[in-house]
Task: structure prediction
Amino acid sequence: MDETDKKFMEFIEKLRGTETGNVVHTIPEVFGIQYKEVYITKWLAYLLRQKDFGWKILNALSGSDIVEENDIKNVYTEYVFKNGRRIDVLIDSKNFLIGIENKIWSGEQENQTSDYKESMENLAPNKECIGIYLHPEQNITKSVFFDNVTYTQLYNKLDEIDLLKYPNSFKKIMLEQFMLYIKECLYMKKGEFPKITENAILYANNIDLIQSAESEFNRVSADVIEWLKYRFENEGYIILNNPCENKEKYIQLAPKEDECKKKWEKIGFHFEILWSSSLVCDKELRIDVHLENNNIDTELQNRFKLDNGMARGDKNPLESESLAGGGFENKTKSEDTFNDILKLLNSERFQKWARIANS
Result:
Protein backbone atom coordinates (compact mmCIF):
# COMPACT_ATOMS: atom_id res chain seq x y z
CA MET A 1 0.00 0.00 0.00
CA ASP A 2 1.59 3.32 -1.07
CA GLU A 3 1.58 6.55 0.93
CA THR A 4 -1.48 8.00 -0.87
CA ASP A 5 -3.50 4.85 -0.18
CA LYS A 6 -2.51 4.94 3.49
CA LYS A 7 -3.59 8.58 3.82
CA PHE A 8 -6.89 7.84 2.10
CA MET A 9 -7.64 4.90 4.43
CA GLU A 10 -6.78 7.10 7.42
CA PHE A 11 -9.25 9.67 6.12
CA ILE A 12 -11.97 7.01 5.74
CA GLU A 13 -11.41 5.79 9.30
CA LYS A 14 -11.69 9.34 10.59
CA LEU A 15 -14.90 9.83 8.61
CA ARG A 16 -16.42 6.64 10.01
CA GLY A 17 -15.79 7.82 13.55
CA THR A 18 -16.98 11.38 13.07
CA GLU A 19 -20.36 12.61 14.25
CA THR A 20 -22.16 14.94 11.88
CA GLY A 21 -22.24 17.70 14.45
CA ASN A 22 -25.90 18.36 13.61
CA VAL A 23 -28.99 17.69 15.64
CA VAL A 24 -31.28 15.60 13.41
CA HIS A 25 -34.45 17.53 12.62
CA THR A 26 -35.86 15.92 9.47
CA ILE A 27 -36.74 12.51 8.03
CA PRO A 28 -34.00 12.54 5.34
CA GLU A 29 -31.36 13.33 7.98
CA VAL A 30 -32.33 10.20 9.89
CA PHE A 31 -31.37 8.09 6.86
CA GLY A 32 -28.51 10.31 5.70
CA ILE A 33 -30.19 11.12 2.38
CA GLN A 34 -30.78 14.86 2.78
CA TYR A 35 -28.60 15.59 -0.25
CA LYS A 36 -29.48 12.51 -2.34
CA GLU A 37 -31.31 13.92 -5.36
CA VAL A 38 -33.03 10.65 -6.34
CA TYR A 39 -34.86 10.30 -3.00
CA ILE A 40 -35.77 13.98 -2.68
CA THR A 41 -37.07 13.97 -6.27
CA LYS A 42 -39.33 10.99 -5.55
CA TRP A 43 -40.63 12.79 -2.45
CA LEU A 44 -41.42 15.91 -4.49
CA ALA A 45 -43.15 13.81 -7.17
CA TYR A 46 -45.28 12.07 -4.50
CA LEU A 47 -46.48 15.46 -3.26
CA LEU A 48 -47.22 16.68 -6.79
CA ARG A 49 -49.48 13.64 -7.33
CA GLN A 50 -51.75 14.58 -4.41
CA LYS A 51 -55.01 15.97 -5.80
CA ASP A 52 -55.62 18.13 -2.71
CA PHE A 53 -52.53 20.30 -2.97
CA GLY A 54 -50.25 18.95 -5.75
CA TRP A 55 -51.48 21.65 -8.14
CA LYS A 56 -50.65 24.34 -5.56
CA ILE A 57 -47.09 23.01 -5.26
CA LEU A 58 -46.75 23.12 -9.05
CA ASN A 59 -47.97 26.71 -9.09
CA ALA A 60 -45.46 27.51 -6.34
CA LEU A 61 -42.68 26.02 -8.47
CA SER A 62 -43.73 27.85 -11.63
CA GLY A 63 -44.26 31.18 -9.88
CA SER A 64 -47.74 31.65 -11.35
CA ASP A 65 -51.16 29.99 -11.41
CA ILE A 66 -50.61 27.78 -14.47
CA VAL A 67 -52.82 24.92 -13.22
CA GLU A 68 -56.05 24.54 -11.34
CA GLU A 69 -57.33 21.71 -9.20
CA ASN A 70 -57.66 18.45 -11.23
CA ASP A 71 -55.55 19.83 -14.12
CA ILE A 72 -52.63 17.48 -13.42
CA LYS A 73 -53.03 14.22 -15.36
CA ASN A 74 -49.79 12.36 -14.69
CA VAL A 75 -46.55 12.85 -12.77
CA TYR A 76 -43.62 10.77 -14.00
CA THR A 77 -40.19 10.32 -12.42
CA GLU A 78 -37.10 9.41 -14.45
CA TYR A 79 -39.08 9.90 -17.67
CA VAL A 80 -37.11 8.59 -20.65
CA PHE A 81 -37.20 10.63 -23.86
CA LYS A 82 -36.54 9.12 -27.29
CA ASN A 83 -32.94 10.39 -27.21
CA GLY A 84 -32.32 8.33 -24.04
CA ARG A 85 -32.21 11.32 -21.68
CA ARG A 86 -34.05 10.90 -18.36
CA ILE A 87 -35.63 13.95 -16.77
CA ASP A 88 -36.19 13.91 -12.99
CA VAL A 89 -39.90 14.81 -13.08
CA LEU A 90 -42.30 15.24 -16.01
CA ILE A 91 -45.82 16.53 -15.40
CA ASP A 92 -48.58 16.24 -17.96
CA SER A 93 -51.35 18.73 -17.24
CA LYS A 94 -54.38 19.99 -19.11
CA ASN A 95 -52.60 22.78 -20.99
CA PHE A 96 -48.93 22.41 -20.09
CA LEU A 97 -46.09 19.91 -20.11
CA ILE A 98 -43.77 20.72 -17.21
CA GLY A 99 -40.31 19.27 -16.68
CA ILE A 100 -38.40 19.56 -13.40
CA GLU A 101 -34.68 18.95 -13.02
CA ASN A 102 -33.67 18.73 -9.37
CA LYS A 103 -30.06 19.75 -8.70
CA ILE A 104 -29.23 19.81 -5.00
CA TRP A 105 -25.44 20.02 -5.16
CA SER A 106 -24.71 18.80 -8.67
CA GLY A 107 -24.58 20.88 -11.84
CA GLU A 108 -26.09 20.61 -15.31
CA GLN A 109 -24.60 18.07 -17.70
CA GLU A 110 -23.64 19.18 -21.21
CA ASN A 111 -26.73 20.26 -23.21
CA GLN A 112 -28.94 18.61 -20.57
CA THR A 113 -31.81 21.09 -20.25
CA SER A 114 -31.63 22.13 -23.92
CA ASP A 115 -32.12 18.46 -24.87
CA TYR A 116 -34.99 18.21 -22.37
CA LYS A 117 -36.70 21.31 -23.75
CA GLU A 118 -36.45 20.05 -27.33
CA SER A 119 -37.70 16.57 -26.32
CA MET A 120 -40.65 18.06 -24.43
CA GLU A 121 -41.65 20.17 -27.43
CA ASN A 122 -41.49 17.12 -29.69
CA LEU A 123 -43.53 15.10 -27.19
CA ALA A 124 -46.30 17.69 -26.78
CA PRO A 125 -46.29 20.07 -29.78
CA ASN A 126 -49.77 21.36 -28.92
CA LYS A 127 -48.95 22.28 -25.32
CA GLU A 128 -46.82 24.99 -23.77
CA CYS A 129 -43.67 23.39 -22.38
CA ILE A 130 -42.19 24.75 -19.16
CA GLY A 131 -38.86 23.70 -17.68
CA ILE A 132 -37.97 24.22 -14.01
CA TYR A 133 -34.38 23.96 -12.78
CA LEU A 134 -34.75 23.50 -9.00
CA HIS A 135 -31.71 24.02 -6.78
CA PRO A 136 -30.66 25.49 -3.43
CA GLU A 137 -29.63 29.13 -3.54
CA GLN A 138 -26.19 28.05 -2.33
CA ASN A 139 -25.77 25.94 -5.50
CA ILE A 140 -24.89 28.66 -8.00
CA THR A 141 -25.33 26.51 -11.11
CA LYS A 142 -27.89 27.95 -13.52
CA SER A 143 -29.80 26.73 -16.57
CA VAL A 144 -30.22 28.84 -19.72
CA PHE A 145 -33.12 26.80 -21.10
CA PHE A 146 -35.14 26.12 -17.90
CA ASP A 147 -36.52 28.62 -15.38
CA ASN A 148 -34.23 28.75 -12.34
CA VAL A 149 -36.10 28.26 -9.06
CA THR A 150 -34.38 28.02 -5.67
CA TYR A 151 -35.56 25.95 -2.74
CA THR A 152 -35.72 29.18 -0.74
CA GLN A 153 -38.24 30.57 -3.24
CA LEU A 154 -40.18 27.31 -3.18
CA TYR A 155 -40.35 27.26 0.62
CA ASN A 156 -41.57 30.87 0.77
CA LYS A 157 -44.38 30.03 -1.69
CA LEU A 158 -45.31 26.78 0.08
CA ASP A 159 -45.44 28.69 3.37
CA GLU A 160 -48.35 30.68 1.93
CA ILE A 161 -50.49 27.52 1.64
CA ASP A 162 -53.01 27.24 4.47
CA LEU A 163 -52.33 23.70 5.70
CA LEU A 164 -54.86 24.01 8.53
CA LYS A 165 -57.70 23.59 6.00
CA TYR A 166 -56.52 20.06 5.16
CA PRO A 167 -57.46 17.18 7.49
CA ASN A 168 -54.66 15.32 9.23
CA SER A 169 -53.38 12.58 6.96
CA PHE A 170 -50.18 10.89 5.83
CA LYS A 171 -49.91 13.10 2.74
CA LYS A 172 -50.32 16.24 4.85
CA ILE A 173 -47.57 15.05 7.20
CA MET A 174 -45.33 14.37 4.20
CA LEU A 175 -45.86 17.94 2.94
CA GLU A 176 -45.17 19.42 6.38
CA GLN A 177 -42.03 17.31 6.69
CA PHE A 178 -40.91 18.31 3.18
CA MET A 179 -41.20 21.97 4.12
CA LEU A 180 -39.28 21.33 7.35
CA TYR A 181 -36.60 19.52 5.36
CA ILE A 182 -36.20 22.49 2.99
CA LYS A 183 -35.99 24.92 5.90
CA GLU A 184 -33.41 22.88 7.81
CA CYS A 185 -31.24 21.63 4.95
CA LEU A 186 -31.68 23.81 1.85
CA TYR A 187 -33.10 27.18 2.89
CA MET A 188 -30.75 30.14 2.57
CA LYS A 189 -30.84 31.90 5.94
CA LYS A 190 -29.35 35.24 4.90
CA GLY A 191 -27.37 37.04 7.59
CA GLU A 192 -27.04 33.93 9.73
CA PHE A 193 -23.60 32.33 9.92
CA PRO A 194 -23.86 28.62 8.98
CA LYS A 195 -22.94 25.82 11.36
CA ILE A 196 -19.61 24.29 10.30
CA THR A 197 -19.86 20.53 10.86
CA GLU A 198 -17.01 18.18 11.67
CA ASN A 199 -17.52 16.37 8.37
CA ALA A 200 -17.19 19.65 6.46
CA ILE A 201 -13.90 20.41 8.23
CA LEU A 202 -12.69 16.85 7.61
CA TYR A 203 -13.52 17.21 3.91
CA ALA A 204 -11.78 20.59 3.66
CA ASN A 205 -8.62 19.19 5.26
CA ASN A 206 -8.53 16.26 2.83
CA ILE A 207 -9.94 17.82 -0.33
CA ASP A 208 -6.84 17.25 -2.46
CA LEU A 209 -6.75 13.58 -1.50
CA ILE A 210 -10.47 13.16 -2.17
CA GLN A 211 -10.27 14.84 -5.58
CA SER A 212 -7.28 12.70 -6.53
CA ALA A 213 -9.15 9.54 -5.52
CA GLU A 214 -12.25 10.69 -7.41
CA SER A 215 -10.25 11.31 -10.58
CA GLU A 216 -8.69 7.86 -10.32
CA PHE A 217 -12.11 6.29 -9.71
CA ASN A 218 -13.63 8.05 -12.76
CA ARG A 219 -10.74 6.87 -14.94
CA VAL A 220 -11.09 3.26 -13.73
CA SER A 221 -14.88 3.35 -14.21
CA ALA A 222 -14.46 4.59 -17.79
CA ASP A 223 -11.92 1.83 -18.46
CA VAL A 224 -14.33 -0.82 -17.15
CA ILE A 225 -17.10 0.51 -19.45
CA GLU A 226 -14.73 0.41 -22.44
CA TRP A 227 -13.79 -3.18 -21.57
CA LEU A 228 -17.47 -4.11 -21.36
CA LYS A 229 -18.16 -2.43 -24.71
CA TYR A 230 -15.43 -4.54 -26.32
CA ARG A 231 -16.64 -7.77 -24.69
CA PHE A 232 -20.31 -7.20 -25.51
CA GLU A 233 -19.57 -6.30 -29.14
CA ASN A 234 -17.72 -9.59 -29.52
CA GLU A 235 -20.90 -11.31 -28.32
CA GLY A 236 -23.23 -9.43 -30.67
CA TYR A 237 -24.44 -6.65 -28.34
CA ILE A 238 -23.88 -2.90 -28.36
CA ILE A 239 -24.08 -0.43 -25.44
CA LEU A 240 -26.59 2.31 -26.28
CA ASN A 241 -25.80 4.89 -23.58
CA ASN A 242 -22.74 6.58 -22.08
CA PRO A 243 -22.98 5.98 -18.32
CA CYS A 244 -19.71 7.71 -17.41
CA GLU A 245 -20.39 10.91 -19.34
CA ASN A 246 -24.02 11.16 -18.17
CA LYS A 247 -23.43 9.88 -14.60
CA GLU A 248 -25.91 7.06 -15.21
CA LYS A 249 -26.03 3.94 -13.06
CA TYR A 250 -27.11 1.60 -15.81
CA ILE A 251 -26.04 0.18 -19.17
CA GLN A 252 -28.57 -0.29 -21.97
CA LEU A 253 -27.91 -3.13 -24.43
CA ALA A 254 -29.28 -3.89 -27.89
CA PRO A 255 -28.23 -6.23 -30.69
CA LYS A 256 -25.22 -5.12 -32.72
CA GLU A 257 -27.01 -6.22 -35.90
CA ASP A 258 -28.46 -3.03 -37.41
CA GLU A 259 -31.97 -4.22 -38.35
CA CYS A 260 -32.69 -5.68 -34.90
CA LYS A 261 -31.16 -2.63 -33.20
CA LYS A 262 -33.49 -0.31 -35.13
CA LYS A 263 -36.52 -2.47 -34.22
CA TRP A 264 -35.58 -2.34 -30.53
CA GLU A 265 -34.93 1.41 -30.53
CA LYS A 266 -38.21 2.14 -32.33
CA ILE A 267 -40.27 0.61 -29.51
CA GLY A 268 -37.94 1.52 -26.60
CA PHE A 269 -36.93 -2.09 -25.93
CA HIS A 270 -33.53 -3.08 -24.49
CA PHE A 271 -31.72 -5.14 -21.89
CA GLU A 272 -30.45 -3.11 -18.94
CA ILE A 273 -27.72 -3.69 -16.35
CA LEU A 274 -28.25 -1.60 -13.20
CA TRP A 275 -26.16 -0.90 -10.08
CA SER A 276 -26.80 1.17 -6.96
CA SER A 277 -23.55 2.98 -6.17
CA SER A 278 -20.56 2.04 -8.34
CA LEU A 279 -20.19 -0.43 -11.20
CA VAL A 280 -16.63 -1.18 -10.08
CA CYS A 281 -17.41 -2.07 -6.46
CA ASP A 282 -21.08 -3.09 -6.32
CA LYS A 283 -21.47 -6.68 -5.16
CA GLU A 284 -24.95 -6.97 -6.62
CA LEU A 285 -26.11 -6.06 -10.10
CA ARG A 286 -29.59 -6.24 -11.57
CA ILE A 287 -30.28 -7.41 -15.11
CA ASP A 288 -33.61 -6.25 -16.58
CA VAL A 289 -35.69 -6.38 -19.72
CA HIS A 290 -37.22 -2.95 -20.35
CA LEU A 291 -39.87 -1.57 -22.66
CA GLU A 292 -39.34 2.14 -22.02
CA ASN A 293 -42.07 3.44 -24.27
CA ASN A 294 -44.43 5.98 -22.74
CA ASN A 295 -46.94 5.61 -25.58
CA ILE A 296 -47.51 1.86 -25.79
CA ASP A 297 -50.31 1.28 -28.27
CA THR A 298 -52.71 -1.66 -28.44
CA GLU A 299 -50.54 -3.52 -30.95
CA LEU A 300 -47.54 -3.41 -28.61
CA GLN A 301 -49.69 -4.38 -25.63
CA ASN A 302 -50.90 -7.45 -27.52
CA ARG A 303 -47.41 -8.40 -28.72
CA PHE A 304 -45.93 -8.26 -25.22
CA LYS A 305 -49.16 -9.46 -23.53
CA LEU A 306 -49.38 -6.36 -21.30
CA ASP A 307 -52.36 -5.39 -19.14
CA ASN A 308 -52.03 -1.67 -19.89
CA GLY A 309 -50.07 0.92 -21.86
CA MET A 310 -47.68 1.88 -19.05
CA ALA A 311 -43.94 1.82 -19.75
CA ARG A 312 -42.07 -1.16 -18.31
CA GLY A 313 -38.86 0.41 -16.99
CA ASP A 314 -36.79 -0.07 -13.84
CA LYS A 315 -39.86 0.15 -11.55
CA ASN A 316 -41.74 -2.70 -13.28
CA PRO A 317 -39.49 -4.44 -15.83
CA LEU A 318 -40.73 -7.19 -18.11
CA GLU A 319 -38.08 -9.47 -16.59
CA SER A 320 -35.53 -8.99 -13.82
CA GLU A 321 -32.78 -10.97 -12.11
CA SER A 322 -30.23 -10.02 -9.44
CA LEU A 323 -26.62 -11.15 -9.69
CA ALA A 324 -25.01 -11.27 -6.24
CA GLY A 325 -21.34 -11.69 -5.41
CA GLY A 326 -20.06 -10.24 -8.68
CA GLY A 327 -18.35 -6.99 -9.54
CA PHE A 328 -15.45 -5.61 -11.56
CA GLU A 329 -12.78 -5.11 -8.90
CA ASN A 330 -10.23 -7.31 -10.67
CA LYS A 331 -9.79 -9.32 -13.87
CA THR A 332 -11.00 -12.66 -12.47
CA LYS A 333 -14.18 -11.20 -10.94
CA SER A 334 -14.83 -9.17 -14.07
CA GLU A 335 -14.61 -12.22 -16.32
CA ASP A 336 -16.90 -14.23 -14.03
CA THR A 337 -19.41 -11.39 -13.74
CA PHE A 338 -19.45 -10.78 -17.49
CA ASN A 339 -20.02 -14.49 -18.19
CA ASP A 340 -22.87 -14.57 -15.65
CA ILE A 341 -24.50 -11.55 -17.32
CA LEU A 342 -24.08 -13.05 -20.78
CA LYS A 343 -25.52 -16.39 -19.65
CA LEU A 344 -28.59 -14.60 -18.31
CA LEU A 345 -29.05 -12.43 -21.42
CA ASN A 346 -28.90 -15.51 -23.64
CA SER A 347 -31.25 -17.52 -21.43
CA GLU A 348 -34.76 -18.43 -22.59
CA ARG A 349 -36.25 -16.09 -19.96
CA PHE A 350 -34.65 -13.08 -21.65
CA GLN A 351 -34.53 -14.24 -25.25
CA LYS A 352 -38.29 -14.86 -25.41
CA TRP A 353 -38.74 -11.07 -25.01
CA ALA A 354 -36.06 -10.41 -27.64
CA ARG A 355 -37.94 -12.59 -30.10
CA ILE A 356 -41.11 -10.59 -29.50
CA ALA A 357 -39.22 -7.31 -30.02
CA ASN A 358 -37.76 -8.66 -33.26
CA SER A 359 -41.12 -9.83 -34.59
Observations:
- The chain has a mean pLDDT of 89.
- Residues 27-186 form one domain.
- The beta strands are 72-80, 86-93, 96-102, 128-135, 147-150, 237-239, 250-255, 269-274, 284-291, 319-324.
